[in-house]
Hints:
The chain is mainly beta.
Amino acid sequence: MKKILLLVLCSTFSFITYANELPKDPLGSVQWNDMYNAFLKGHPAVFDERIKLIAPDFAEDPMNVPVAIDASALDNVEQMVVFADFNPIPLIAKYYPTNAKASLSLRFKIQQASPVRVAVLSNGVWHVAGLWVNSAGGGCTVASVGRLVGDWADYIGNTYGKRWSNKETNRIRFLIHHPMDTGLVPGIPAFYIEDLDFVDSQGKELARIELYEPINENPVLSFDFNQADGSSTIYMTGSDNNGNEFEASFVQ
């Protein structure tokens, strides 16, 4: 019994010491330590002004909050994690820019005023940026418009988008029809796109994104790819948590 108790105490002490080493949150959120332990633990974290994070000061439509992220000032970016501290489901998206630029635009649902953050894993360190988004709230606990109209099943997976390729830009922006139900509306289970993968015409992986319940209905996403892939068709495949599969292609 003494040996077991000693191991528990040592483990607890190690956890407390590591939590105390976290940098002070410039946004003053009481959830910062919890967010770190939920999504970022395993690597040290720093707040980094080089990351550009753009979102509205006030979310006029809590079901469609636009966020634009540019972490191209960092090198060797492995992963980007987007989350909102005070959302009932904080995790919004994880982005892996394998052979793409470390930039991303998306829209999400917000339940109440909250810090919105992106953490970028670069060279073994989480570089974090964030800002407060105020809102009247309720975005996560309202049924999707498609559910209310009743025609969402007729369009699920349909994708509409555009691609820009020139000397400076190799970007795709698209909308994919899906109700993206959070599971927080009584009688409507969680139903959302889980992942989207992007490859070039030779099958080389360009990027992958994991989506979570707070992503907006009929997600609108933008990605910036490397110029080396500017002349190649970009193929997208994806699936949701019910096993539905989607695909699209984006030509120059």
